[in-house]
Amino acid sequence: MGKKRVYMETYGCWLNRGEGELAKTILREKGYEIVNTPSPADIVVVNTCAVRGDTERNMLARLEELRKLAPEARFVVTGCLVNVRPKSILEILPGASLLEPDAVTKIGEVLERDEPVYILRKYERDLSLLPKYREGPTYVIPIQSGCMGSCSFCVEWVARGRRVKSYPVELVVNAVKEAVSRGVREVYLTGQDIASYGLDIGTSLPELLKTLLEEVPGYYRVRVGMMEPSMLRRFVDRLAPLFKDPRLYKYFHVPVQHGDDRVLSLMNRKYTVNEYKSLIRRIREEVGLSSVVTDIVVGFPGETEEAFQNTLRLLEEIMFDKVHIARYTLRPFTKGYLLPGVPEPVKKRRSRLASELALRISGEVNKKYEGMLAEVLVNGASFRGDAAGRTPEYKLVIMKDYDLKVGDLVKVRITKSTPLHLEGEVVD
């Protein structure tokens, strides 16, 4: 076959990571060796992200660096940036092959050809292939791609298309069953919008989860990925009761994006602030103790000081477990690109204020866990080398001075909290 050593980097969301693992699965099955550094590689694969303007700049800078680190290597660039900035990529890597996210399954075929291959904006996905579990406590599996939204700040409709593409229930369930039988303790279900799963194949996320829990025996925990609020509202009454099963992390990533109805309308979000609050209230009433995580964009065109204050009030009212704060950046092909912008110093100030508030709220939320007993799934190590794991609510717990194995399930008393994690003692 000739060149066989492949170095790969993946950036961005959990869906991108799942697709990166799918690419590795395909390459290994075709006989390629995955290596850990670019310098000995014959082929360099970069799985890119394009969610923000600064992300795009970082991606292009990294391609430049990799070209210098592996000047003789053949390059394949995939991920969301391919459909957004193909020309910019080729200016840096003239001989690279470009594969849009939906074409990642064609990577093996592409490497068998001598000339560069370009597959862009076709949005045709092979829904018969999923990544195979290899090792470790966690299995990341994409279950859908595509989004029903048309947000005026988001370029993902260019990156991945508007049509929802869902993997068959049986294929997903069998892949999880295989991974669990081989020792997996965590399963991350990923997608562009998990709440839109099944729209194209006559099913839904609740049906998938119900089938998975019924047909996959053993002890494991499933983390459900991001759910768009207007899509989640359609079936929240069917979904929330499923989270009484201890195998589902009581974790809900539901991006609100803003706390002002006028700005939500400018963003083309399909709900009001009150509808969002009602949705979160319904989840908490049904599920009980749980983690609710959200995303906020500050400085979107048209955001007044009053609108920004409404966002801060929403954070105070809902008391999110975690908030991802992002300053608005211009993205091509979006309606927001054409609107009068908020000055950068104003965006920076608002971002700082929102981040400080979100961190304070996270600290207050985590403080309530002190003194509680929790069943913690050990899934890694902290930066100090201490054992680390997750509570049923997906809270990070550090356990100092304990000899624990990845995959252990231990009872822990929470002794300390910070805005970012909990600390605890193992109870015999």
Automatic annotation (TrEMBL):
InterPro entries: Elp3/MiaA/NifB-like_rSAM, Methylthiotransferase, Methylthiotransferase_N, Methylthiotransferase_N_sf, MiaB-like_arc_euk, rSAM, rSAM_horseshoe, rSAM_sf
Protein name (Swiss-Prot/TrEMBL): tRNA-t(6)A37 methylthiotransferase
Record keywords: 4Fe-4S, Iron, Iron-sulfur, Metal-binding, S-adenosyl-L-methionine, Transferase, tRNA processing
Gene Ontology MF terms in the entry: 4 iron, 4 sulfur cluster binding; metal ion binding; tRNA (N(6)-L-threonylcarbamoyladenosine(37)-C(2))-methylthiotransferase activity
TRAM domain boundaries: 367-428
Function: Catalyzes the methylthiolation of N6-threonylcarbamoyladenosine (t(6)A), leading to the formation of 2-methylthio-N6-threonylcarbamoyladenosine (ms(2)t(6)A) at position 37 in tRNAs that read codons beginning with adenine.
Domain MTTase N-terminal: residue ranges: 4-116
Family: Belongs to the methylthiotransferase family. CDKAL1 subfamily.
The record's free-text note on cofactor binding: Binds 1 or 2 [4Fe-4S] cluster. One cluster is coordinated with 3 cysteines and an exchangeable S-adenosyl-L-methionine.
Enzyme class: transferase
Alphabetized Pfam families for the sequence: Radical_SAM, TRAM, UPF0004
Catalytic activity, as annotated: N(6)-L-threonylcarbamoyladenosine(37) in tRNA + (sulfur carrier)-SH + AH2 + 2 S-adenosyl-L-methionine = 2-methylsulfanyl-N(6)-L-threonylcarbamoyladenosine(37) in tRNA + (sulfur carrier)-H + 5'-deoxyadenosine + L-methionine + A + S-adenosyl-L-homocysteine + 2 H(+)
Residue ranges constituting the Radical SAM core domain according to the UniProt record: 133-364
Cofactor dependency: [4Fe-4S] cluster
Listed EC numbers: 2.8.4.5
UniProt organism field: Thermofilum pendens
Record-linked PROSITE patterns: MTTASE_N (PS51449), RADICAL_SAM (PS51918), TRAM (PS50926)
Superkingdom, natural source: Archaea
